[in-house]
Amino acid sequence: MVACGGQDTSTNDTTTATTEETTNTDAETAVDTDMAKGDMMGIMHQNMEEMQNIRTQMTGDPDYDFAQMMTHHHKGAVRMADEELANGTDMKMKEMAQKTKETNQADIQKLQDFMSKHKPATGDTATTMKMVRPMMSMMGQMHQQDMSGMNTDQNFAQMMVHHHQMGNEMSKEFLKMAKTEEMKQMAQKTIDQQTKEIKELKAWQQQ
């Protein structure tokens, strides 16, 4: 279809779809080939697989779809926290892991409560899928890192930085289309809290 100014919008749509498909394929390849890089990386990849699979359950309602995706995102954080608590040795990282687990479990409950009472409105799933794109792009880049020499504490810190950055990007994208005040507040809380934790994790890494 040709829009005003003679621009072929169908070509643009095809290019966007192709780019997104390529990005998804790259990330999926990372999931398949990099599981051996450590338990934390494996947990992150499991989390990403779950969030990729949720694409088939997208409703087009931005608030409902955000709640679905953020629930799985937080579950990934809980799994990584459990790994750190079980096998980590650094007290600072173990304290952060315990805090992460408690905070994310509480948020998961709030998100599930929202989904149970919020009937999703029919919408354009292509719009809500925009929340996933930054995360998929970051995942495609992350798998190139060599984490083979890191211990559990170092793995936890590095993976949580990536995890939080992905969550922040997803939340920022959601806020552009958010409808309900409850989910707007949840998204902003996620950004504020995870930004603070990223700073703490990076400060620990530089010690």
Automatic annotation (TrEMBL):
Residues 1-29 are annotated as: Disordered. This is DUF305 domain-containing protein. It comes from the Bacteria. Residues 21-114, 124-204 form the DUF305 domain. Residues 8-29 have a biased composition (Low complexity). InterPro entries: DUF305_CopM-like (IPR005183), Ferritin-like (IPR012347).
